[in-house]
Amino acid sequence: MTKGNAEQVSKPEKACTVFPLKSGIYKGATRPCLVITKVCKGVGMLIGSRTTRSIRALAAITLLGASNAAFAQASYPGKPLRLICAYTPGGSLDLTGRPLAQGLTEVLGQQVIYENKPGANGNVGAAMVAKATPDGYTLLIASTSQLTINPSLYPDMPYDVSKELAPIALISMTPTVLVLHPSVQANTFKEVLAYARAKPGALRYSSAGNGSINHLATELLKMNEKIDILHVPYKGSGPALNAVVAGEVNFMITSVPLAMAFLKAGRIKPISLSAHKRFRLLPDVPTLAEAGGQGFEASAGIGLLAPAGTPRPVITKLYESAVKVVNSPDVGQKLLAQGVDLIGGTPEEFATLIREESARWDRVVRAGNIKPD
Length: 373
Fold this sequence. Notes:
Blueprint: E1 16-24, E2 33-40, E3 43-47, H1 52-74, E4 81-85, H2 92-108, E5 112-116, H3 123-130, E6 138-143, H4 144-148, H5 150-153, H6 161-164, E7 165-174, E8 176-180, H7 189-198, E9 204-207, H8 213-225, E10 230-233, H9 237-246, E11 251-255, H10 256-264, E12 269-274, E13 300-307, H11 312-326, H12 332-338, E14 342-345, H13 347-368
Parallel strand pairs: 4-5, 4-6, 9-10
Antiparallel strand pairs: 1-2, 2-3, 6-13, 7-13, 7-14, 8-11, 8-12
Helix pairs in contact: 2-11, 8-13
Protein backbone atom coordinates (compact mmCIF):
# COMPACT_ATOMS: atom_id res chain seq x y z
CA MET A 1 0.00 0.00 0.00
CA THR A 2 1.40 3.42 -0.99
CA LYS A 3 0.90 6.59 0.90
CA GLY A 4 -0.79 8.22 -2.10
CA ASN A 5 -3.38 5.54 -2.54
CA ALA A 6 -4.59 4.83 1.00
CA GLU A 7 -3.91 5.57 4.59
CA GLN A 8 -1.76 3.16 6.49
CA VAL A 9 -3.79 0.75 8.59
CA SER A 10 -2.30 0.09 11.99
CA LYS A 11 -1.90 -3.47 13.18
CA PRO A 12 -5.38 -4.65 14.08
CA GLU A 13 -6.40 -5.54 17.58
CA LYS A 14 -6.91 -9.16 18.41
CA ALA A 15 -10.65 -8.91 17.87
CA CYS A 16 -10.24 -7.33 14.42
CA THR A 17 -9.17 -8.75 11.07
CA VAL A 18 -8.03 -6.73 8.02
CA PHE A 19 -8.78 -8.20 4.60
CA PRO A 20 -7.27 -6.55 1.43
CA LEU A 21 -9.89 -6.81 -1.29
CA LYS A 22 -8.88 -5.24 -4.57
CA SER A 23 -7.33 -2.23 -6.20
CA GLY A 24 -9.58 -0.05 -8.33
CA ILE A 25 -12.26 2.61 -8.45
CA TYR A 26 -14.78 2.38 -5.55
CA LYS A 27 -18.12 4.19 -5.55
CA GLY A 28 -17.32 7.61 -6.86
CA ALA A 29 -13.60 7.70 -6.00
CA THR A 30 -11.82 9.93 -8.55
CA ARG A 31 -8.69 7.77 -8.75
CA PRO A 32 -7.66 4.19 -8.09
CA CYS A 33 -7.18 3.21 -4.50
CA LEU A 34 -6.65 0.05 -2.52
CA VAL A 35 -9.89 -0.81 -0.76
CA ILE A 36 -9.54 -2.59 2.57
CA THR A 37 -12.24 -4.10 4.71
CA LYS A 38 -11.64 -3.96 8.44
CA VAL A 39 -13.85 -6.32 10.40
CA CYS A 40 -14.20 -5.76 14.14
CA LYS A 41 -16.53 -8.01 16.07
CA GLY A 42 -18.53 -8.73 12.94
CA VAL A 43 -18.88 -5.11 11.78
CA GLY A 44 -17.36 -4.20 8.43
CA MET A 45 -15.80 -0.82 7.46
CA LEU A 46 -14.33 0.42 4.19
CA ILE A 47 -11.14 2.45 4.42
CA GLY A 48 -9.56 4.23 1.47
CA SER A 49 -8.03 7.51 0.62
CA ARG A 50 -11.34 8.91 -0.58
CA THR A 51 -13.63 7.12 1.90
CA THR A 52 -11.92 7.78 5.21
CA ARG A 53 -13.34 11.26 5.62
CA SER A 54 -16.84 9.98 4.77
CA ILE A 55 -16.50 7.20 7.32
CA ARG A 56 -15.41 9.67 9.96
CA ALA A 57 -18.33 11.98 9.12
CA LEU A 58 -20.80 9.10 9.26
CA ALA A 59 -19.42 8.03 12.63
CA ALA A 60 -19.75 11.57 13.92
CA ILE A 61 -23.36 11.77 12.74
CA THR A 62 -24.14 8.39 14.36
CA LEU A 63 -22.58 9.46 17.64
CA LEU A 64 -24.45 12.75 17.50
CA GLY A 65 -27.75 10.94 16.89
CA ALA A 66 -27.10 8.57 19.79
CA SER A 67 -26.15 11.51 21.99
CA ASN A 68 -29.33 13.38 21.07
CA ALA A 69 -31.46 10.29 21.76
CA ALA A 70 -29.78 9.78 25.12
CA PHE A 71 -30.31 13.45 25.96
CA ALA A 72 -34.00 13.24 24.96
CA GLN A 73 -34.49 10.20 27.20
CA ALA A 74 -32.62 11.82 30.09
CA SER A 75 -34.80 14.94 29.86
CA TYR A 76 -38.02 12.95 29.38
CA PRO A 77 -40.72 14.08 29.60
CA GLY A 78 -40.22 17.41 27.91
CA LYS A 79 -43.86 18.04 27.00
CA PRO A 80 -47.39 16.96 28.05
CA LEU A 81 -48.37 13.29 27.74
CA ARG A 82 -51.64 11.69 26.59
CA LEU A 83 -53.19 8.84 28.55
CA ILE A 84 -55.80 7.06 26.42
CA CYS A 85 -58.70 5.13 27.94
CA ALA A 86 -60.39 3.00 25.27
CA TYR A 87 -63.80 2.94 26.99
CA THR A 88 -66.63 5.34 27.81
CA PRO A 89 -66.39 7.76 30.75
CA GLY A 90 -67.67 6.58 34.12
CA GLY A 91 -66.52 2.97 33.86
CA SER A 92 -64.17 1.02 36.12
CA LEU A 93 -61.14 2.11 34.11
CA ASP A 94 -61.95 5.75 34.80
CA LEU A 95 -61.97 5.12 38.55
CA THR A 96 -58.29 4.21 38.34
CA GLY A 97 -57.21 6.00 35.17
CA ARG A 98 -58.14 9.54 36.13
CA PRO A 99 -56.43 9.50 39.56
CA LEU A 100 -53.42 7.83 37.91
CA ALA A 101 -53.20 10.63 35.34
CA GLN A 102 -53.36 13.20 38.13
CA GLY A 103 -50.65 11.41 40.10
CA LEU A 104 -48.36 11.01 37.07
CA THR A 105 -48.75 14.72 36.35
CA GLU A 106 -47.34 15.52 39.78
CA VAL A 107 -44.55 12.91 39.70
CA LEU A 108 -43.38 13.58 36.12
CA GLY A 109 -43.72 17.36 36.27
CA GLN A 110 -45.67 17.41 33.00
CA GLN A 111 -49.40 17.42 32.43
CA VAL A 112 -50.87 14.00 31.64
CA ILE A 113 -54.01 14.56 29.57
CA TYR A 114 -56.64 11.86 30.09
CA GLU A 115 -58.76 11.04 27.03
CA ASN A 116 -61.63 8.57 26.52
CA LYS A 117 -61.53 6.99 23.05
CA PRO A 118 -64.20 4.25 23.10
CA GLY A 119 -65.16 1.91 20.30
CA ALA A 120 -65.04 -1.77 19.23
CA ASN A 121 -64.73 -3.03 22.80
CA GLY A 122 -61.56 -1.06 23.43
CA ASN A 123 -59.88 -1.74 20.10
CA VAL A 124 -60.18 1.81 18.74
CA GLY A 125 -58.29 3.53 21.55
CA ALA A 126 -55.78 0.71 21.98
CA ALA A 127 -54.96 0.70 18.25
CA MET A 128 -54.46 4.46 18.40
CA VAL A 129 -51.75 3.97 21.02
CA ALA A 130 -50.24 0.91 19.32
CA LYS A 131 -49.72 2.92 16.11
CA ALA A 132 -48.44 6.06 17.86
CA THR A 133 -44.82 7.20 17.83
CA PRO A 134 -42.94 5.14 20.45
CA ASP A 135 -41.54 8.11 22.34
CA GLY A 136 -43.39 7.76 25.65
CA TYR A 137 -45.83 10.61 25.05
CA THR A 138 -48.87 8.50 24.13
CA LEU A 139 -49.86 5.89 26.72
CA LEU A 140 -52.73 3.46 27.24
CA ILE A 141 -54.61 2.67 30.43
CA ALA A 142 -56.10 -0.74 29.66
CA SER A 143 -58.11 -3.48 31.28
CA THR A 144 -56.57 -6.92 31.22
CA SER A 145 -59.78 -8.16 29.57
CA GLN A 146 -59.33 -6.00 26.47
CA LEU A 147 -55.73 -7.19 26.16
CA THR A 148 -56.43 -10.88 26.79
CA ILE A 149 -59.96 -11.47 25.42
CA ASN A 150 -60.14 -9.30 22.31
CA PRO A 151 -57.45 -11.21 20.36
CA SER A 152 -59.65 -14.34 20.60
CA LEU A 153 -62.87 -12.44 19.96
CA TYR A 154 -61.89 -10.39 16.90
CA PRO A 155 -60.36 -12.28 13.94
CA ASP A 156 -59.21 -9.00 12.36
CA MET A 157 -57.68 -7.12 15.28
CA PRO A 158 -56.46 -3.63 14.28
CA TYR A 159 -53.29 -4.17 16.31
CA ASP A 160 -51.20 -7.00 17.78
CA VAL A 161 -51.13 -6.91 21.58
CA SER A 162 -47.89 -8.89 21.90
CA LYS A 163 -46.02 -7.08 19.12
CA GLU A 164 -47.31 -3.49 19.14
CA LEU A 165 -47.76 -2.69 22.82
CA ALA A 166 -45.11 -2.57 25.54
CA PRO A 167 -46.28 -3.26 29.13
CA ILE A 168 -45.16 -0.61 31.64
CA ALA A 169 -46.86 -1.49 34.92
CA LEU A 170 -49.66 -3.68 36.25
CA ILE A 171 -51.51 -1.11 38.33
CA SER A 172 -54.17 -3.22 39.99
CA MET A 173 -56.00 -6.54 40.15
CA THR A 174 -59.44 -6.50 41.77
CA PRO A 175 -61.97 -9.33 42.08
CA THR A 176 -65.38 -9.13 40.47
CA VAL A 177 -68.63 -9.49 42.39
CA LEU A 178 -72.05 -10.81 41.36
CA VAL A 179 -74.57 -8.11 42.23
CA LEU A 180 -78.35 -8.49 42.15
CA HIS A 181 -81.23 -6.04 41.94
CA PRO A 182 -83.19 -6.00 45.25
CA SER A 183 -86.40 -7.01 43.47
CA VAL A 184 -85.03 -10.50 42.76
CA GLN A 185 -86.21 -12.88 45.48
CA ALA A 186 -82.80 -14.36 46.22
CA ASN A 187 -80.12 -13.50 48.78
CA THR A 188 -77.57 -16.27 48.30
CA PHE A 189 -75.87 -17.86 45.33
CA LYS A 190 -77.80 -21.12 45.82
CA GLU A 191 -81.06 -19.17 45.78
CA VAL A 192 -80.02 -17.44 42.55
CA LEU A 193 -79.33 -20.87 41.00
CA ALA A 194 -82.68 -22.19 42.22
CA TYR A 195 -84.46 -19.16 40.72
CA ALA A 196 -82.66 -19.58 37.38
CA ARG A 197 -83.47 -23.29 37.20
CA ALA A 198 -87.10 -22.79 38.16
CA LYS A 199 -87.55 -20.06 35.52
CA PRO A 200 -85.22 -20.77 32.56
CA GLY A 201 -84.45 -17.61 30.57
CA ALA A 202 -86.16 -15.33 33.10
CA LEU A 203 -82.99 -13.91 34.66
CA ARG A 204 -81.28 -11.26 32.56
CA TYR A 205 -77.73 -10.06 33.12
CA SER A 206 -75.89 -7.03 31.77
CA SER A 207 -72.33 -6.61 30.55
CA ALA A 208 -70.07 -3.94 29.11
CA GLY A 209 -70.51 -5.60 25.70
CA ASN A 210 -69.96 -8.90 23.96
CA GLY A 211 -66.58 -10.31 24.94
CA SER A 212 -66.15 -8.08 27.99
CA ILE A 213 -64.92 -9.57 31.26
CA ASN A 214 -68.49 -9.26 32.62
CA HIS A 215 -69.82 -11.24 29.69
CA LEU A 216 -67.20 -14.01 29.72
CA ALA A 217 -67.28 -14.42 33.49
CA THR A 218 -71.07 -14.84 33.44
CA GLU A 219 -70.91 -17.19 30.45
CA LEU A 220 -68.38 -19.29 32.38
CA LEU A 221 -70.80 -19.29 35.33
CA LYS A 222 -73.63 -20.30 32.98
CA MET A 223 -71.60 -23.20 31.55
CA ASN A 224 -70.36 -24.38 34.94
CA GLU A 225 -73.79 -24.33 36.60
CA LYS A 226 -75.80 -25.33 33.49
CA ILE A 227 -78.39 -22.55 33.79
CA ASP A 228 -80.36 -20.66 31.14
CA ILE A 229 -79.96 -16.88 31.50
CA LEU A 230 -80.26 -14.01 29.03
CA HIS A 231 -77.39 -11.68 28.10
CA VAL A 232 -78.11 -7.96 27.60
CA PRO A 233 -74.98 -6.11 26.40
CA TYR A 234 -74.45 -2.38 27.02
CA LYS A 235 -71.82 0.05 25.79
CA GLY A 236 -69.53 0.15 28.80
CA SER A 237 -69.46 -1.17 32.35
CA GLY A 238 -70.94 2.04 33.80
CA PRO A 239 -74.16 1.85 31.75
CA ALA A 240 -74.33 -1.91 32.38
CA LEU A 241 -74.24 -1.45 36.16
CA ASN A 242 -76.72 1.42 35.98
CA ALA A 243 -79.09 -0.99 34.24
CA VAL A 244 -78.95 -3.32 37.26
CA VAL A 245 -79.52 -0.42 39.67
CA ALA A 246 -82.50 0.75 37.61
CA GLY A 247 -83.98 -2.75 37.43
CA GLU A 248 -83.67 -3.00 33.63
CA VAL A 249 -81.79 -6.28 34.16
CA ASN A 250 -81.53 -8.59 37.15
CA PHE A 251 -77.83 -8.98 37.82
CA MET A 252 -74.26 -8.45 36.69
CA ILE A 253 -70.73 -9.60 37.48
CA THR A 254 -68.78 -6.36 37.85
CA SER A 255 -65.65 -4.94 39.45
CA VAL A 256 -65.82 -4.19 43.17
CA PRO A 257 -64.76 -0.51 42.88
CA LEU A 258 -67.50 0.23 40.35
CA ALA A 259 -70.14 -1.37 42.56
CA MET A 260 -69.05 -0.04 45.98
CA ALA A 261 -71.12 3.16 46.07
CA PHE A 262 -74.31 1.32 45.10
CA LEU A 263 -73.56 -1.51 47.54
CA LYS A 264 -73.13 0.94 50.41
CA ALA A 265 -76.39 2.64 49.48
CA GLY A 266 -78.21 -0.70 49.41
CA ARG A 267 -79.34 -0.24 45.81
CA ILE A 268 -77.88 -3.60 44.76
CA LYS A 269 -77.18 -6.83 46.68
CA PRO A 270 -73.74 -8.56 46.72
CA ILE A 271 -74.07 -12.33 46.22
CA SER A 272 -70.63 -13.84 45.59
CA LEU A 273 -67.07 -13.06 44.52
CA SER A 274 -65.40 -14.44 41.40
CA ALA A 275 -62.17 -15.01 43.30
CA HIS A 276 -60.24 -17.60 45.28
CA LYS A 277 -60.44 -15.65 48.54
CA ARG A 278 -62.65 -13.05 50.19
CA PHE A 279 -62.06 -9.36 49.59
CA ARG A 280 -61.05 -6.94 52.37
CA LEU A 281 -63.85 -4.44 51.66
CA LEU A 282 -66.55 -7.13 51.40
CA PRO A 283 -65.55 -9.53 54.18
CA ASP A 284 -69.07 -10.98 54.53
CA VAL A 285 -69.44 -11.79 50.83
CA PRO A 286 -68.41 -15.40 50.07
CA THR A 287 -66.48 -16.63 47.07
CA LEU A 288 -68.33 -18.70 44.49
CA ALA A 289 -66.78 -21.88 45.90
CA GLU A 290 -67.82 -20.96 49.45
CA ALA A 291 -71.34 -20.17 48.24
CA GLY A 292 -71.76 -23.61 46.72
CA GLY A 293 -70.79 -22.96 43.10
CA GLN A 294 -67.85 -23.95 40.94
CA GLY A 295 -65.26 -21.37 41.91
CA PHE A 296 -63.20 -19.46 39.38
CA GLU A 297 -61.29 -16.21 39.29
CA ALA A 298 -62.33 -13.33 37.07
CA SER A 299 -60.29 -10.41 38.32
CA ALA A 300 -60.52 -6.98 36.76
CA GLY A 301 -56.93 -5.97 36.09
CA ILE A 302 -55.73 -2.55 34.97
CA GLY A 303 -52.35 -1.74 33.48
CA LEU A 304 -50.31 0.96 31.80
CA LEU A 305 -48.80 0.42 28.33
CA ALA A 306 -46.88 2.26 25.62
CA PRO A 307 -46.28 1.62 21.91
CA ALA A 308 -43.77 -1.15 21.27
CA GLY A 309 -40.32 0.24 20.57
CA THR A 310 -40.52 2.85 23.32
CA PRO A 311 -36.95 3.19 24.70
CA ARG A 312 -36.31 1.09 27.78
CA PRO A 313 -35.14 4.07 29.89
CA VAL A 314 -38.51 5.73 29.20
CA ILE A 315 -40.40 2.55 30.12
CA THR A 316 -38.37 2.33 33.33
CA LYS A 317 -39.06 5.95 34.25
CA LEU A 318 -42.78 5.51 33.64
CA TYR A 319 -42.86 2.30 35.69
CA GLU A 320 -41.05 3.93 38.61
CA SER A 321 -43.38 6.94 38.39
CA ALA A 322 -46.49 4.71 38.37
CA VAL A 323 -45.23 2.85 41.45
CA LYS A 324 -44.75 6.17 43.24
CA VAL A 325 -48.31 7.14 42.38
CA VAL A 326 -49.91 3.90 43.62
CA ASN A 327 -47.91 4.16 46.84
CA SER A 328 -48.77 7.81 47.41
CA PRO A 329 -51.25 8.86 50.13
CA ASP A 330 -53.10 11.20 47.76
CA VAL A 331 -53.85 8.68 45.01
CA GLY A 332 -52.96 5.23 46.32
CA GLN A 333 -54.93 5.46 49.55
CA LYS A 334 -57.99 6.82 47.76
CA LEU A 335 -57.94 3.92 45.30
CA LEU A 336 -57.56 1.42 48.14
CA ALA A 337 -60.58 2.96 49.84
CA GLN A 338 -62.60 2.58 46.63
CA GLY A 339 -61.86 -1.14 46.47
CA VAL A 340 -58.86 -1.25 44.16
CA ASP A 341 -56.14 -3.76 45.04
CA LEU A 342 -52.94 -2.01 44.00
CA ILE A 343 -50.16 -4.17 42.56
CA GLY A 344 -47.45 -2.05 40.94
CA GLY A 345 -46.28 -5.05 38.91
CA THR A 346 -43.20 -4.81 36.71
CA PRO A 347 -43.31 -4.76 32.88
CA GLU A 348 -42.20 -8.41 32.89
CA GLU A 349 -44.90 -9.46 35.40
CA PHE A 350 -47.54 -7.62 33.39
CA ALA A 351 -46.41 -9.33 30.16
CA THR A 352 -46.59 -12.76 31.83
CA LEU A 353 -50.13 -12.07 33.09
CA ILE A 354 -51.26 -11.07 29.59
CA ARG A 355 -49.93 -14.32 28.11
CA GLU A 356 -51.51 -16.54 30.79
CA GLU A 357 -54.91 -14.79 30.82
CA SER A 358 -55.05 -14.83 27.01
CA ALA A 359 -54.81 -18.61 26.97
CA ARG A 360 -57.48 -19.00 29.67
CA TRP A 361 -60.11 -16.72 28.11
CA ASP A 362 -59.46 -18.10 24.64
CA ARG A 363 -60.88 -21.42 25.85
CA VAL A 364 -64.06 -19.71 27.12
CA VAL A 365 -64.57 -17.77 23.86
CA ARG A 366 -64.25 -20.96 21.82
CA ALA A 367 -66.44 -23.07 24.12
CA GLY A 368 -69.21 -20.47 24.17
CA ASN A 369 -68.85 -19.59 20.47
CA ILE A 370 -68.85 -15.94 21.58
CA LYS A 371 -68.87 -13.29 18.86
CA PRO A 372 -68.33 -9.52 19.09
CA ASP A 373 -71.20 -7.02 18.84
